[in-house]
Write a structure and sequence with these properties.
820 residues, mainly alpha, five-stranded parallel sheet, elongated
Length: 820
């Protein structure tokens, strides 16, 4: 394969895929990373951890913390990008072997894995094995010539290879005719040839055996398995059947299941006899049976009623006793014991929940409920909690509706279910539904005398109370009622349930975001940093609960024109938004990204990004208002006043757009209408609104020629904004921006100068004209000063450049604008 190439082997069971992959790996001079996919890897958290663990086993310097970037229903771009960068930084050649890829059903994981495969470093090659084509989009790799594909026909043994294998396994020579007959009847299928070889060890008449040997792959396998098993010593046959229930084998586990105490000896014997033992090549060194052989063994085992569940119960108990909780649950599930599965998840699920493996908990509980729909309401409440934690909103809504129809639901269970349902408000559940569910939960808590269910080990009365009250605070925030939201978050922060670290992070982050949106940057930063400290102290720095805290810090950084801080926390919030894919988080993330673009790349780029189709169709009301204001502001800055007017007409009832209404009136020269809009502006409810009100008061007064009144209003705005460092609002109004520069020229220092020095993009309709030679950033800065009638030297002092530089810019301006 070429550098960054992909090899995939697709063939039925027993075709030799795993053997071939293992041979490739052993013969490679590069580092080898090996992973076998199981059904549990549809949980993205488990998939990421298994993949990263395999990389660490191959390259100890590989960063294991990368796995913590995954917390939602997909691997996410942050994980994919970081993994690729880490592979590139290793420098050494590496071969990555991933077997049984067909077991991946999670389309989001498959999509992210395909993106990773498409962007591999030149030092990495990937080999994959699957029984059928996995849902990976590999067309681009195929067109680029980077994909090598092997199918069943490519793996089929030739006549000579078949004869060599048959003689090696059977221990007896075969004639050319005998070997060719078996090759023809197996069509070179490796498993069929191996089974035939094992049978030939015991039959006295090879020709008679070969004459009876016919049929399809599966029929051959069934026939030969029966022949092989029936001819084995009773002890060996009993060991094979008993241990067929195990996904992996070691001597102690085998002893626990069989009760014979001869596990080590039997495994050595099976390996010597070539009885389908596979060495996966993983770091733990565990053995397993070939998939097809294990299926056949279990088929024979089920002839004995009750035997398989009995053996699986033994395995589950041993696994649980030895800390293998997940494997114990899988065994109980396979044993058909849904009640046991539910009990295990409820009793031991907290660690899985806190490790972000909620999707696996949801899968187990859903499977248990499907086996026995009559399981207790407690199982359904735990299922609801797992689905909410795994961001499976649609499934959670359906579970809640099913719960409400149950006659055996206690008030305590109902309160827990309602509080959990309210958490769907973090996705796209309407806020009216959130308020209703939270009110239901708190009302039931006041009257319920029974015990409130302790779902997933983190529930109970305190947690239910916290979730209900916290989601009211979130709903108020999303509805744009920032002061009431902040007050609610402050109350939530002091509840007993907030002592649980994840809940505390939510409370602090939510309070931080409410205060940041209101303009209280210092308070917002303090609470957001407190949330980050809780996460750091508990080793959960990549937990999705930190999204609000990072959003708040982005908002603060944008307001304060701190470009580096904004970029850092926008990256951190993006990890949480894009991995969880919660609608609210995606909407807030998109808005903040556009605001960053507006500040440092200008209105054209921001408007294009704002109207991009990748944003979620649902967004909180507060985001809608901010998005509409931003879009209107960009249109005015670009001189597209007709479009801005149309947008304002559509949203004429939006009080939050009053500043943009005033800006539009001023941009079109209608000072009287601007004054009227200003007089009708309701009393500002937040610090940000108060600052914006003073800024527009200054702009209207300046347009009316009342310079002294304008200056006073500007200075009031500066006084309000300085304590929290809010600089960005002064860049939103073109006339006020010019006034601010004049203030600096007159000797104003400190905060006013810091706004001018940190601003990058200038909003000016003139710059949006269709010029043959566009104005440079510095030329637009000089252009802003021309209406002020300042001298060239005064302009130079304002821009911190020489007078000659200003004259050069002026010459270029006159040429480009075709004026004298």
């Amino acid at each position: 394969m070429q550098p960054a190439g992909i090899g995939i082997v697709v063939a039925p069971a027993g075709s030799g895929k795993s053997v071939l992959l293992g041979q490739w790996a052993r013969r490679s001079a590069a580092r080898v990373c090996q992973m076998r996919v199981t059904a549990s890897h549809d949980d993205p958290v488990l998939f990421a951890r298994s993949l990263v663990s395999a990389f660490v086993a191959a390259a100890p310097e590989f960063d294991p913390g990368i796995a913590e970037l995954v917390s939602g229903p997909a691997l996410g771009p942050a994980f994919v990008n970081r993994l690729r960068a880490e592979l590139e930084s290793l420098g050494d050649q590496m071969v990555v072997v991933i077997d049984d890829v067909h077991l991946l059903d999670n389309e989001l994981i498959c999509g992210d894995l395909a993106r990773l495969l498409g962007r591999l470093p030149q030092t990495v090659r990937v080999l994959m094995g699957a029984r059928w084509d996995p849902p990976l989009r590999l067309q681009r790799l195929r067109l680029d010539g980077r994909l090598m594909e092997l199918r069943a026909s490519d793996l089929a043994f030739t006549g000579d290879e078949s004869r060599d294998l048959l003689e090696s396994v059977s221990g007896r020579p075969l004639s050319v005719a005998q070997a060719e007959a078996l090759h023809a009847r197996t069509e070179g299928w490796a498993a069929g040839l191996q089974l035939a070889g094992i049978s030939l060890q015991r039959v006295p008449d090879a020709d008679a055996f070969i004459d009876q040997f016919t049929g399809s792959d599966r029929l051959i396998a069934d026939y030969l398995a029966e022949e092989v098993l029936d001819d084995l010593e009773p002890g060996v046959r009993r060991f094979l059947l008993s241990t067929s229930v195990l996904e992996w084998l070691d001597a102690d586990l085998c002893d626990a299941v069989t009760g014979d105490g001869n596990g080590a000896e039997m495994l050595d014997l099976l390996a010597w006899r070539s009885l389908f033992l596979v060495h996966p090549g993983t770091a733990d060194g565990r053995l397993r049976y070939h998939h097809l052989f294990a299926d056949l063994l279990r088929y024979r085992l089920r002839v004995q009623p009750g035997e398989e569940p009995r053996l699986r119960r033994r395995a589950a108990q041993w696994l649980l006793d030895h800390g293998n909780f997940a494997d114990a649950v899988e065994q109980s599930l396979a044993a058909g014991e849904p009640g046991r599965v539910a009990d295990l998840v409820i009793a031991y699920g907290q660690d899985s929940f806190e490790r972000g493996e909620a999707a696996t908990l949801a899968r187990w509980l859903e499977a248990a409920r499907n086996i026995d729909p009559s399981l207790s309401a407690a199982v359904e409440v735990n299922l609801l909690a797992a689905q909410i934690a795994a961001f499976q909103t649609d499934e959670a809504v359906e579970t809640y509706r099913r719960l409400r129809r149950r006659a055996d639901l206690s008030d305590g269970d109902s309160a827990a279910a309602a509080a959990l349902y309210a958490c769907a408000g973090l996705d796209d559940l309407p806020m009216a539904e959130v308020f209703k569910a939270a009110e239901t939960a708190t009302g039931l808590l006041r009257t319920a005398d029974d015990i409130v269910i302790d779902f997933l080990g983190v529930g109970g009365r305190d947690s239910v109370e916290f979730l209900a009250e916290c989601m009211v605070a979130v709903a108020l925030l999303f509805d744009g009622d920032l002061d009431r939201s902040a007050a609610k978050f402050e109350a939530v922060r002091d509840l007993p349930g907030a002592q649980y670290r994840v809940w505390k992070i939510y409370a602090l982050g939510g309070l931080a975001l409410a205060r940041a949106l209101a303009g209280h940057a210092n308070e917002a930063r303090s609470n957001a940093m407190a949330a980050l400290e809780v996460a750091e102290a508990n080793g959960i720095t990549y937990h999705h609960s930190l999204a609000f805290a990072h959003f708040a810090l982005v908002r603060v950084a944008l307001d304060q024109l701190d470009q580096n801080m904004a970029a850092f926390h926008l990256g951190e919030s993006g990890i949480r938004a894009h991995t969880t894919r919660l609608a609210a988080n995606v909407a807030i993330q998109h808005l903040l990204e556009v605001e960053q673009t507006a500040l440092w790349k200008g209105p054209d780029a921001a408007l294009t990004e704002l109207r991009s189709s990748d944003r979620h169709p649902w967004e909180p009301k507060v985001v809608t208002g901010l998005r509409q204001a931003l879009e209107t502001r960009m249109l005015i800055a670009m001189g597209k006043c007709d479009q801005a007017r149309a947008l304002l007409d559509i949203n004429s009832r939006a009080d939050a757009l009053t500043p943009q209404v005033i800006d539009l009136k001023l941009a079109t020269g209608d000072a009287a209408a601007a004054r009227q809009a200003l007089s009708q502006w309701d009393q500002p409810k937040t610090l940000r609104c108060a600052i914006e009100h003073e800024i527009r008061t200054a702009a209207v007064a300046a347009e009316e020629g009342a310079r002294s009144h304008a200056t006073l209003a500007l200075r009031r705005a500066l006084e309000l904004a300085e304590q929290d460092g809010l600089r960005a609002p002064f860049l939103e109004q073109a006339e006020v921006h010019r006034m601010l520069r004049r203030e600096v020229l007159r000797g104003s220092q400190g905060f006013a100068r810091s706004i001018i020095s940190r601003s990058v993009v200038r909003d000016d309709a003139a710059s949006a004209g269709q010029l043959e030679a566009p104005l440079t950033e510095r030329e637009r800065e000089v252009l802003d000063y021309l209406p002020t009638r300042l001298s060239n030297s005064e302009i130079a002092r304002a821009l911190f450049v020489s007078t000659n530089t200003v004259k050069t810019h002026l010459r270029h301006l006159y040429i480009k604008l075709a004026v004298t």
